[in-house]
Specification:
The complex is a heterodimer of chains A (113) and B (114). Chain A is mainly β and 113 residues long. Chain A has strands at 4-7, 10-13, 19-25, 31-38, 42-49, 56-57, 65-67, 75-78, 87-94, 102-104, 108-112. The A-B interface holds A 4, 31, 33, 35, 40-45, 48, 58-59, 90, 92, 94-107 and B 6, 32, 34, 36, 41-46, 49, 51, 90, 94, 97-107.
């Protein structure tokens, strides 16, 4: 079974601090995604990547950066965290074929105080 | 841009009863359509997907969904639910050629009463 691992599982950060959320996949998938999940909004796409070295802006990229240093790893970076970024963040990976299913990690619960 | 509407935020059903979850999408051409399920404290898992062909698609755990182009809908159904089907269900649409940049609905929380 495909595996996507996120770390940390829970994070408490202070306003203005830097936060890095990490994601590792062992599926050898080219595509990786970062979503945030909020009540009333479902999942919204922040950044995604088509392969090592590439990052693309999703639907809500403001306040976030992404980094894809390798096929396996995809990080989400909050340079100056704000309370509005308190959310649950999900990483996912997927293949490049049409209508490929996404494999999700268990999520990272981030609280910015 | 594509969008997805799930009009029911919460649905409560009795064990053994049938279930239908509604999903309406907005996109000018034929999209890729998905249903995902999220069990408590877990990530999302795909139940089924549709792109072309038979408008009724079968998924895992007895779920099926029916695509209607005229109605712009992709409703999810299950004939007889089990308590373990309690979860949040998300409809999703992708409009790019690779079918892998998804827009999700807000989700429908399903509670199955024993």
């Amino acid at each position: 079974e495909a595996a996507v691992t996120q770390s940390p599982r829970n994070k408490v950060a202070v306003t203005g601090g830097k936060v890095t959320l990490s994601c590792n996949q062992t599926n050898n998938h080219n595509n990786m995604y970062w979503y945030r999940q909020d009540t009333g909004h479902g999942l919204r796409l922040i950044h995604y990547s088509y392969g090592a070295g590439s990052t693309e802006k999703g639907d809500i990229p403001d306040g976030y950066k992404a980094s894809r240093p390798s096929q396996e790893n995809f990080s989400l970076i909050l340079e100056l965290a704000t309370p509005s970024q308190t959310s649950v963040y999900f990483c996912a990976s997927g293949g490049t074929g049409g209508a490929e299913r996404l494999f999700f990690g268990h999520g990272t619960k981030l609280s910015v105080l | 841009a594509q969008s997805v509407t799930q009009p029911d935020a919460r649905v409560t059903v009795s064990e053994g009863a049938s279930l239908q979850l509604r999903c309406k999408y907005s996109y000018s051409a034929t999209p890729y359509l998905f249903w995902y399920v999220q069990y408590p404290r877990q990530g999302l898992q795909m139940l089924l997907k549709y792109y072309s062909g038979d408008p009724v698609v079968q998924g895992v755990n007895g779920f099926e969904a029916e695509f209607s182009k005229s109605d712009s809908s992709f409703h999810l159904r299950k004939a007889s639910v089990h308590w373990s089907d309690s979860a949040v269900y998300f409809c999703a649409v992708s409009a790019n050629s690779a079918g892998n940049k998804l827009t999700f609905g807000i989700g429908t929380r399903v509670l199955v009463r024993p």
